[in-house]
Amino acid sequence: MPARRSTLGLLDRKLLFVTGKGGVGKTSVASALGHLAAAQGRRTLVCEVDSKGDLADFFGVGPLSFEPTEVRPGLFAMAMDTEASLKEYLRLQLKLPMLAKVGPLARTFDFIANAAPGVKEILTVGKLTWEVRERHYDLVVVDASATGHVVGQLASPVAINDLVKVGLVRNQTDWMIDILTDPDQTAVVVVTSPEEMPVSETLELVGRLGEETDIEVASVVVNRVLPELFARSDEEIFDRVREPDAMAALAERVGGGVEQVMEGAELAVSLRRSRVRHLTRLREGLPSGIPVLNLPFLFTRSHGVRATAKIAESLGEELGF
Amino acid sequence: MARTHQDRQVETLEQLCAAKEIVVSTGSGGVGKTTTAAALGATAAARLGIKVLVLTVDPARRLASALGMERFGNVETRVPDSAFDDAGVEAQGELWAAMLDTKQSWDDLIRLHAPDAATRDAILANPLYQNITGKFVQSHDYVAMERLYEIHNSGRYDLIVVDTPPTRNALDFLDAPERMADFFSSRLLRWLIAPYRSRVVGFASKPFYTVADRILGTQFLEDIAEFFILFQSMYDGFVERAHAVTELLGSPQTTFLVVSTLEVAPSREAAYFLSLLAEREYHVGALVLNKVLPDLLLDKSATESARVLAKHGADVGAELDEQLQLGMAHVGSVLTEVGRSFLDYQVVARREAEQRRELASIPDLTLSVPYFDDDIHSLSGLLRLGEGIWS
């Protein structure tokens, strides 16, 4: 953990790594953060690191590439490509434009990148921190690797620093580390859902980030929080209505399907209640000072541009905009 | 013999586990891949009277402890019969479990295959080796496949159910062995390490080294070179095994289980993965769908009742209160909520039913597992889940 916590608002940072256990909706939250930041007039870049192509869906555009696409006014989206990142690095930072074009060199690096995968991590983190350093955007939002891999990714400049004691790479990793460990510039947003494994992984990740890196966790976003069906005080009404005489009267009035409707309600209550326990565990397990933001479960559209807009709206409310 | 397994349509998991020697559980993160693999292994051991190993990669702690893996980790450990007794099941066979520890597996691999003690020690002490095996992601994929191959060839088990690492891309672990083989047989690699071997930098590669030195520093290049030179001593073995692992994945003894939920992103990934497996002519045994909402949400008469409640809940509540003399406030609002909630969940259930229809058209066997309130972390829970999809 960094020595101090930033007092800046979430979107006032320069670089946000959005991570979470697979399947909790981190891409939708990353796209919504970008959407929201751009709507506030920030020039924003959203970058998908694991090129699964989901980010494009959430912006309703075709496949994304290394070259950013403007998906809405002031909102840009790109997909990480480590080979392209290497070429850009050689061209812009080492001033070796011709080398980037030499096939065998790029292929050699590709081989090294595949065998010694820290190279891919550093090319990813390097590109993102570089965009921040050059102030090309007000905010860079990263749809980062899942919880299992993100620590390795964020710690890669330090790991490379341990391996490489001198040379240009060393100078490069130094400024990356400076950006990453400045809580006013860089933070991690952990997305989770109120279920057992996602909550456990979130708590583990927050612990590991604190122990193994100096990068701040700005917020934990709990996605897909199911609505409370009715207050506990109304539970006795539900139980009473479930009794045979009331069910018979209801079937008479609204049709025989009412039995399944009640079973559906019981399912909804049990889904909600089993999740509340995990929410409590999350709140109690997190170190103090990390805000928890709740996003509702989206029944109608959970994927795509509509989902991005809805999630951005809820995020905005949670952040007090 | 080889064709008959492929041609016959598999109708149950029971049949599949009886016929195959390796079941590979795949799917995107968070869909219950590990739990499904463990449930299948436990059920196969209980029902088929065979010796089963569940090889998991990153199990939840409570699941690991349910299978007794907490203390043993990388070592294959038998789940005691008493655990089955406690779950009220008489095990016909044996259930074994192991958790893959990447670093430990790599070290074992080097110890096993290094040509001599000096090479072994030099590799184990090389800083690049320590970083690759300890910290970085892709080495998981390779070593998982390598370990599977080693265990299969040992002949210790009738059935191995293997969970796959949480990869960025479904292809990664399938390609890992061949990528390793490509790497070690690459001319580029030899070219890269040649100067460190001969201490004479050839004319052609000189500019490259000048640049590489500038970028990476001499010490790092030397570490890389040492690492690869040492690894080259194991070259033949690595390449040979990489090919053998690929062969094994495509052999008739092996089948793939694609695990998914019916949410959009995992479903898409499952569809993509099913198409990749088909492209490579790998055998897909079954599609297992987790967290499936119950069919009652799609019921027509229920929909009608829910609509009336959602719209006229207040009236219905007032009538009910009067008719039965309930003397309760809020009956109307509770009924309205119940009706609305049903319709909300129905939207999800409808979307998922369509998703299921699209996915299920690909493999022969599709199995649905309902929502569970909690994650499963006991042998009895695993057996209950397994029984639900077994036959």
Ordered list of secondary-structure elements with their pairings:
The complex is a heterodimer of chains A (321) and B (391).
Chain A: E1 15-20, H1 26-39, E2 44-48, H2 54-59, E3 69-72, E4 75-79, H3 82-93, H4 97-101, H5 103-115, H6 118-133, E5 139-143, H7 147-154, H8 156-163, H9 168-180, E6 186-192, H10 196-212, E7 216-225, H11 235-241, H12 244-254, H13 258-285, E8 292-296, H14 305-318
Parallel strand pairs in A: 1-5, 1-6, 2-4, 2-5, 6-7, 7-8
Antiparallel strand pairs in A: 3-4
Helix pairs in contact in A: 1-14, 3-6, 6-8, 6-9, 8-9, 10-13
Chain B: H1 2-7, H2 13-19, E1 22-26, H3 33-48, E2 51-56, H4 61-66, E3 77-79, H5 81-86, E4 94-99, H6 102-113, H7 117-125, H8 127-135, H9 138-154, E5 159-163, H10 170-184, H11 187-198, H12 206-216, H13 218-232, H14 235-249, E6 254-260, H15 264-279, E7 284-292, H16 300-324, H17 331-360, E8 366-370, H18 379-390
Parallel strand pairs in B: 1-5, 1-6, 2-4, 2-5, 6-7, 7-8
Antiparallel strand pairs in B: 3-4
Show unreliable segments of chain B.
1-7, 199-203
Radius of gyration of chain B: 27 Å
Q: Which whole number gives the mean pLDDT of chain A?
A: 88
Query: What percent of the residues of chain A sit in helical stretches (DSSP H or I)?
Result: 40-55%
Biggest β-sheet of chain B: count, sense, barrel?
Answer: 8 strands, mixed
Low-confidence stretches of chain A: none
Summarize model confidence as the mean pLDDT of chain B.
83
Measure the end-to-end span of chain A.
28 Å
- Tell me the fraction of residues in β-strands of chain B, as a range: 5-15%
Largest interface, Cβ cutoff 8 Å = A-B, 80 and 85 residues
